[in-house]
């Protein structure tokens, strides 16, 4: 009993830190609950469970977080801890830990506000690309005020509990202290193997499940599971069955399998008409949700911030150019993104590959080079292929990926400093990007080559700033609507300049979003948060129409090649939508760790721990209703994702 009291007294500072950690975690969960009240399930079980399950994750995370404190108070000499310098050291070390915890609570709040989830892969990436992320934070938030507030709260919190932090350490022996430390470390190792991130998935409402988590625990979990081998985590089936099913799923008019082995899905694509080497400009616009367009406003019940009306006295037109293009293009009304991040959009638009679990192919070193891409196909057909990006192409491994997969990379470094009108953490404003892109097109045209340019914009992103004097919503307001208005302005300016070029009449412009502005919703796969617009604008080449068939983002590359009528050897998983028979449309989606297959008004969701669920999804609201399992759809879903993962892992998706 005496020994227990001695240990308790000796490790007092560690116990206090554990309690502080648990308290801050509880208050963070409570604050997020209040903030998201309108989207939560309010059944008693769904409200109580996040706090009970969360207690487990909080305790595990507190254990890991407090190990440095455990080692300090357990191994530093008793004489030093009881001395004045020792007390100063103890209090200072505790204050630093407290500051980190409060800073993390604020970070979780901001992350939740952006993504409506606890930390995940994105948070891990943010630590890798600190330059862009830090600049974005600087430009988006009043940091001096925030840090001053954090410092004040930290000091007041310490002052309130300072008397509990330190008392004279009891003379516990070194062996008893070492034994206690080893016991705590062993408990941490045991939790590493026994506690699973999936324990929090108790509800049909995604936000209730997210509340049950702990940000620091999930950050560590995301860091550890950055790579998720499909066979280890997801439902799978016999390899022979997978590829037999895929051969049925990937058949389409004009496609003949030429692969010599069962796992070789190469098809020869015979065009429907005479080949035309039109130039192709593929513009992927950052975060352009369908809901932002006037065409979809009523469908998505889009609401504009009252601050715009108060500041300007009216709601300005946000996307007049893009809205006007609806009637001048082939406009896709029922198109869905593959994922929730730019790298997922780039993956779909270049490889036509289903989104596999873990990291996007764009970032999956070393398997991200030499892949089958639309760039490689067009390069083999004599095209000058370029990826033109407004930021630093090091970000998200874009430069390495495109540079090793058939494209020449042109990023912000190619743009003269004296011609840049505005720049944020993510890169130059869209009009400067388009100016550089036109220079590259002129260069290709001058060399007598048809060109394919994939342009990736950055302006429609927090901190939502842009050059002065361009649009009616001033950049000082830092509103998404203003950034979107500027994005539309830049497209208009680009197309007007392009119309004066000799290559314009022989060019197909494809404008599409990389993903939606928000992925938040009550379910893990809210389809309304994947709905994106796309235009194929080519006066004199294509006939304007509303294309209303369900279309996946991975269908865009083969559809583009279909317009050109080029014969080629294909490994795409996407379809040429203008040739595909009716009734075969489908979607393939990813949301962090869950992957989904949508067809004929039903959705199969595959989750880690080899879970499979079946729903009837509501496209307009994102809600889902559980329904009995459709065995055939389940097998098709597994075949798509397992087959794509197998090909990447075995080097079979190479060009």
Automatic annotation (TrEMBL):
Its main location: membrane. Coiled coil: none annotated. The keyword Transmembrane applies. InterPro entries: Alkaline_phosphatase_core_sf, LtaS-like, OpgB/LTA_synthase_biosynth, Sulfatase_N. It is a multi-pass membrane protein. Residues 279-565 form the Sulfatase N-terminal domain. It is found in: Cell membrane. Keywords: Cell membrane, Membrane, Transmembrane, Transmembrane helix. The chain crosses the membrane at residues 12-35, 55-76, 88-112, 141-161, 173-195. This is Sulfatase N-terminal domain-containing protein. It comes from Flavihumibacter stibioxidans.
């Amino acid at each position: 009993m005496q020994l227990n009291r001695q240990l308790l007294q000796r490790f007092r500072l560690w116990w206090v830190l554990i309690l502080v950690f648990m308290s801050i975690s509880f208050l963070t969960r409570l604050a997020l609950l209040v903030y998201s009240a309108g989207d939560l399930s309010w059944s008693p079980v769904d409200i109580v469970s996040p706090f009970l399950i969360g207690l487990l994750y909080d305790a595990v995370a507190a254990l890991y977080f407090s190990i440095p404190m455990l080692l300090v108070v357990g191994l530093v000499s008793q004489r030093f801890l009881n001395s004045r310098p020792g007390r100063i050291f103890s209090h200072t070390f505790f204050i630093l830990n407290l500051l980190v915890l409060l800073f993390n609570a604020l970070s979780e709040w901001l992350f939740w506000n952006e993504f409506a989830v606890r930390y995940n892969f994105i948070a891990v990436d943010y630590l890798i690309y600190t330059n862009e992320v830090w600049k974005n934070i600087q430009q988006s938030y009043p940091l001096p005020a925030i840090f001053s507030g954090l410092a004040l709260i930290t000091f007041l919190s310490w002052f309130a509990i300072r008397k509990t932090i330190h008392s004279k350490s009891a003379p516990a022996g070194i062996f008893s202290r070492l034994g206690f430390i080893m016991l705590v470390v062993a408990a941490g190792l045991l939790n590493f193997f026994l506690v699973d991130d999936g324990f929090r998935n108790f509800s049909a409402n995604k936000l209730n499940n997210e509340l049950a988590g702990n940000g620091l625990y999930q950050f560590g979990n995301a860091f550890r599971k950055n790579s998720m081998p499909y066979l280890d985590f997801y439902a799978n089936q016999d390899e022979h069955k997978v590829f037999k099913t895929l051969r049925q799923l990937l058949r389409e008019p004009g496609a003949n399998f030429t692969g010599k082995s069962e796992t070789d899905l190469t098809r020869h694509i015979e065009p429907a008409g005479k080949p035309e080497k039109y130039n192709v400009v593929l513009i992927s616009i950052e975060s352009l949700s369908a809901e932002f367009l006037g065409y979809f406003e009523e469908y998505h019940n889009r609401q504009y911030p009252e601050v715009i009306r108060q500041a300007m006295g009216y709601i300005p037109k946000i996307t007049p150019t893009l809205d006007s293009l609806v009637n001048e293009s082939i406009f896709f009304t029922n198109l869905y993104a593959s994922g929730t991040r730019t790298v997922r959009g780039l993956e779909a638009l270049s490889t036509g590959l289903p989104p596999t679990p873990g990291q996007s192919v764009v970032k999956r070193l070393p398997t991200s080079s030499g892949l089958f891409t639309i760039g490689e196909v067009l390069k083999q057909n004599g095209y000058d292929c370029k990826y033109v990006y407004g930021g630093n192409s090091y970000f998200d491994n874009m430069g390495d990926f495109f540079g090793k997969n058939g494209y020449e990379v042109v990023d912000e470094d190619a743009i003269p400093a004296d011609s840049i009108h505005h720049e944020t953490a993510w890169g130059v404003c869209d009009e400067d990007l388009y100016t550089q892109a036109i220079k590259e097109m002129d260069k290709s045209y001058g060399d007598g080559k048809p060109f394919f340019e994939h342009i990736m914009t950055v302006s429609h992103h927090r901190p939502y700033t842009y050059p002065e004097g361009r649009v009616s919503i001033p950049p000082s307001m830092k509103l998404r609507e203003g950034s979107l208005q500027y994005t539309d302005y830049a497209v208009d300016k680009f197309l007007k300049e392009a119309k004066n070029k000799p290559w314009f009449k022989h060019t197909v412009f494809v404008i599409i979003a990389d993903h939606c502005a928000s992925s938040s919703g009550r379910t893990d796969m809210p389809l309304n948060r994947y709905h994106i617009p796309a235009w194929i604008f080519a006066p004199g080449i294509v006939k304007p129409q509303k294309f209303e068939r369900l279309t996946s983002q991975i269908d865009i590359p083969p559809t583009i090649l279909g317009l050109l009528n080029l014969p080629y050897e294909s490994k795409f998983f996407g379809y040429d939508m203008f040739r595909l028979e009716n009734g075969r449309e489908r979607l393939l989606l990813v949301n962090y760790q869950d992957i989904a297959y949508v067809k004929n008004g039903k959705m199969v969701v595959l989750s880690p721990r080899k879970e499979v669920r079946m729903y009837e999804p509501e496209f307009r609201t994102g809600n889902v209703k559980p329904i009995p399992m459709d065995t055939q759809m389940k097998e098709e879903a597994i075949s798509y994702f397992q087959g794509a993962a197998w090909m990447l892992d075995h080097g079979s998706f190479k060009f």
